[in-house]
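Contributing new records

If you add data, match the layout below exactly. Sequence lines come first and carry their own label; structure lines follow with theirs. Keep one chain per record. Anything else will be rejected by the validation script.
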Amino acid sequence: MGYPAFMTKHPYKPGDEVEWSSHGSTTHGEVKEEITTETEAAGRKVKASKEEPQYRVESAKSGRDAVHKPEALRKKK
């Protein structure tokens, strides 16, 4: 299972302001890192690759890190 062709261009970069859904509400924060290898981040094992990257983001509200697939993020307006 891969991402749609338009998603494979790595849509986010460190410093981008993004938002995502979390526990029924919208949270916003900043992309801190693009993850392109299998690694540990935000307290969990992340299965990412260059073809299917994931993004470590920092919540503006809590300061905590989370890792999301690109389809879970939206650029903040």
